[in-house]
């Protein structure tokens, strides 16, 4: 872990014989925290300031340190329940949320399309009101962002976007925690996106500039990010003094990039477009040729599941690939989201330098 922090000696711990040699973290009294997220929805990172997103990453690091490194049991969500609506199948989102919520003492309840049809057998308004009376929060992995917006409007409990056609905010939190751990800071990094102008890219565009990160995007013609999201991302870049570059040349987007990022070219619901998409994305595979024009400290991210046409084995399984720490961090970041939206907990770990 590269947070470049140290452990403070704690007299009480010494008296109790507890070990203090726990890697490179610093643990002490919680710092004054001005961020308050309790009761909020997490539908898109567009709705959160840089300081609020940093708080969620700080809390993620804190929970990971206290639970994984120190072996503490933190039943912060004891007595609370979570409704989990999944219109789309998932490995990481389901496993990280279900195990994370349970690890914090809460009870997750998994609902598939066999259990609940949003807006079909019951209106979204009615569903939101029923769930509000029986659970403390809802994480929904859906097709349409508009369904999440209606749920949030009608529910009296926090609604969390587990993925939609437009955004995937909880994935980006895991990406940023992974980069924070690796580089020690996010400020000044250049992210090179090579692939589809999809929900993952949209969430990066809504947040990267808030950390003073630059973003270079290459997509095939016809597969660019949503124009309204691009316009807002350009505004964020201007406000924060960062660079946002959109192009169609993968090598140009990779040039000087610290982090090479790609994702599936064919998302769930796009199977009929497979042949057309594979043809459009010719030349977009991330390889060592791509990495040669990147920064000397380049790393690679992919949110999984991965197909070989998106990135070859040499990059995907290289020491520069952070995909598996990135996958694990889905758990710590979603735990932090749920704790921040449902409790008044303050991190015990010293705040990282972002």
UniProtKB/TrEMBL annotation:
Q: Does the keyword Ion transport apply?
A: no
* A Pfam family reported for this protein in Swiss-Prot or TrEMBL: OTCace
Compartments annotated for it: namely: Mitochondrion matrix
Q: Name one GO molecular function term.
A: ornithine carbamoyltransferase activity
Name the keywords, alphabetized. Amino-acid biosynthesis, Arginine biosynthesis, Mitochondrion, Transferase, Transit peptide, Urea cycle
GO terms for biological process, alphabetical: ammonium homeostasis; citrulline biosynthetic process; L-arginine biosynthetic process via ornithine; L-ornithine catabolic process; urea cycle
- Please tell me one Gene Ontology term that the record gives under cellular component: mitochondrial matrix
Task: State which pathway it belongs to.
Answer: Nitrogen metabolism; urea cycle; L-citrulline from L-ornithine and carbamoyl phosphate: step 1/1
Recorded catalytic reaction(s): these are: carbamoyl phosphate + L-ornithine = L-citrulline + phosphate + H(+)
Q: What is its EC number?
A: 2.1.3.3
Q: Where is the Aspartate/ornithine carbamoyltransferase Asp/Orn-binding domain?
A: 187-340
Looking at the record, the residues that make up the Aspartate/ornithine carbamoyltransferase carbamoyl-P binding domain are 40-181
The similarity annotation says: Belongs to the aspartate/ornithine carbamoyltransferase superfamily. OTCase family.
Record note on quaternary structure: Homotrimer.
Briefly state the protein's biological role: Catalyzes the second step of the urea cycle, the condensation of carbamoyl phosphate with L-ornithine to form L-citrulline. The urea cycle ensures the detoxification of ammonia by converting it to urea for excretion.
Record protein name field: Ornithine transcarbamylase, mitochondrial
Q: What is the lineage of its organism?
A: Eukaryota, Metazoa, Chordata, Craniata, Vertebrata
């Amino acid at each position: 872990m590269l947070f470049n922090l140290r452990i403070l000696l704690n007299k009480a711990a010494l008296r109790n014989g507890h070990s203090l040699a726990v890697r490179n973290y610093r643990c002490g009294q919680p710092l004054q925290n001005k961020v308050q997220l309790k009761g909020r929805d997490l539908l898109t990172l567009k709705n959160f300031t840089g300081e609020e997103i940093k708080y969620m990453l700080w809390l993620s690091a804190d929970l990971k340190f206290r639970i994984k490194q120190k072996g503490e049991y933190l039943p912060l969500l004891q007595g609370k329940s979570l409704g989990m609506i999944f219109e789309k199948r998932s490995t990481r989102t389901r496993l990280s949320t279900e195990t994370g919520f349970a690890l914090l003492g809460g009870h997750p309840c998994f609902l598939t399309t066999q259990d609940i049809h949003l807006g079909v057998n019951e209106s979204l308004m009615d569903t939101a009101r029923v769930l509000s009376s029986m659970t403390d929060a809802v994480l929904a992995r859906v097709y349409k962002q508009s369904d999440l917006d209606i749920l949030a409007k009608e529910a009296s409990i926090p609604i969390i976007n587990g993925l939609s056609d437009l955004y995937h905010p909880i994935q980006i939190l895991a990406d940023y925690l992974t980069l924070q751990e690796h580089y020690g800071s996010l400020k000044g990094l250049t992210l090179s996106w090579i692939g589809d102008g999809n929900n993952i890219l949209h969430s990066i565009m809504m947040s990267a500039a808030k950390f003073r990160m630059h973003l270079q995007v290459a997509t095939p013609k016809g597969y660019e990010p949503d124009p309204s999201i691009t316009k807002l991302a350009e505004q964020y870049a201007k406000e924060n003094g960062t660079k946002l570059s959109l192009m169609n040349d993968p090598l140009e987007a990779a040039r000087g990039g610290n982090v090479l990022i790609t994702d599936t070219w064919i998302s769930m619901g796009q199977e009929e477009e497979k042949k057309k998409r594979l043809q459009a994305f010719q030349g977009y595979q991330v390889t060592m040729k791509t990495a040669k024009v990147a920064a000397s400290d380049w790393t690679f991210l992919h949110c999984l599941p991965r197909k070989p046409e998106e990135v070859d084995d040499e990059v995907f399984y290289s020491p520069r690939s952070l995909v598996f720490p990135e996958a694990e961090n889905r758990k710590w970041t979603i735990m932090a989201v749920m704790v921040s939206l449902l409790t008044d907990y303050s991190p015990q770990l010293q705040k990282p330098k972002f």
